[in-house]
Each structure stands twice: as C-alpha cells, then as structure tokens.
Amino acid sequence: MELRQEVLEEMALLRERTPDVQGSVACTVDGLQLACDLPGESGEQAAALSAALLAMSRRMLVITGQGALEETLISGTAGFTAFYAAGPTIVLTVLAGPGANVGLLRLEGRKTAAAVAAVSSRKH
C-alpha cells in the first residue's frame, strides 16, 4: 500500500477515536500535501501554512531552550487547530470543533502523529 493511503487510514482512525475532530492534513516539512481529510479545497493552503508554522515553532523552541517540539495548539473562537511533527519529514495538522476535549485531542493527535511517523519510516 502506498504512503498516502496508509496516512489517510491513520487520519480516519483519528476521526473515529476523537469525535470532535473535523479533519486533518498531512504534509511534508516543505509544505507539499501528502494526504488530506479536510472538507473543501483547503488542503494545499493548509499544508503550506502547516509546514511554515512547524518551522517557526521548532525555531522558537531552539531559541528559548524549551526542548523538542511536541505540538503547537491554536485556539480560535470556532475551534482548535493542532500541529504535530510526525517524524522528521511530515507535519500532521488536526482541526477540532469548538468545545472539543483538548486533552483527548492532544493525546490522540500525538498517537496519530507517531503512527504516521512509523508508516513514513517503513516506506523510506
């Protein structure tokens, strides 16, 4: 099975385990979309922005000496967006609705990012 399909399967499992998740996108650290489970045509733009935010988050942690990146979480008036490094080459971005259980989102987001990283390492 190809990488894109396996990553999509992990994203579908995330949605099944976490009812507040509205969608997700996986991309390379260069911003190229790998797999998309987002409604509409926003996958390419979300991928590019995800890669940029991951790079900025990692840089901030280096500058401040706060260790390795685990996640970046953005809280908005209409929900949450969480960004995870899924190994050294993939970014996983997860969207959740307002009132989402943030603890569950963080737990399941990290679990899915680890699964995506494992899939990627097997394929390379």
Structural class by SSE content: alpha+beta
Mean pLDDT: 94
Radius of gyration: 13 Å
State the helix count: 3
**What strand order characterises the main sheet?**
2-1-5-4-3
Q: Can you summarize the main beta sheet?
A: 5 strands, antiparallel
Helix share of residues?
A: 40-55%
Distance between the termini: 13 Å
| β-strand amount | 25-35%
User: How many strand elements?
Assistant: 5
Low-confidence stretches: none
General form:
globular
Summarize the helix and strand pattern as letters.
HEEHEEEH
Q: Would you kindly provide a written description of the structure presented here, covering whatever features stand out?
A:
With 124 residues, the protein is of the alpha+beta class. It has helices spanning 3-17, 43-64, 102-123; strands at 21-28, 33-36, 72-76, 79-85, 90-96. It has a five-stranded antiparallel β-sheet with strand order 2-1-5-4-3. Helix 1 packs antiparallel against helix 3. It starts with a helix and ends with a helix. The model has no long low-confidence stretch (mean pLDDT 94).
Q: How would you summarize what this structure contains?
A:
With 124 residues, this protein is of the alpha+beta class.
Key terms for this structure?
globular, 124 residues, alpha+beta, five-stranded antiparallel beta sheet
Write the layout of secondary structure elements.
Blueprint: H1 3-17, E1 21-28, E2 33-36, H2 43-64, E3 72-76, E4 79-85, E5 90-96, H3 102-123
Organism: Nonomuraea thailandensis
Domain Roadblock/LAMTOR2: 8-96
InterPro entries: Roadblock/LAMTOR2_dom (IPR004942)
